[in-house]
Specification:
By secondary structure, the chain is an all-alpha fold. It is built from three helices and no strands. The mean pLDDT is 82.
């Protein structure tokens, strides 16, 4: 039978990191802090996209 252990590659590394940091019983802030320490550039990109979404939402109000 095939080995069921998964190995990370460039395409699955982010998914593996998200799964590692955001599973478990820890508070969400602790999970996010751990993810941000491991992947600061990815975290900055997520924050940037969220900020753009908020700005676009507020721009439509008026």
């Amino acid at each position: 039978m095939a080995d069921t252990a998964t190995t990370s590659n460039k395409k699955t590394a982010l998914t593996d990191s998200l799964r590692t940091h955001f599973t478990g019983d820890a508070p969400l802030t602790e999970k996010a802090r751990g993810f941000a320490k491991e992947r600061p550039w990815t975290s900055a990109a997520f924050v940037g996209v969220a900020a753009l979404a908020v700005l676009n939402t507020l721009r439509g109000r008026g």
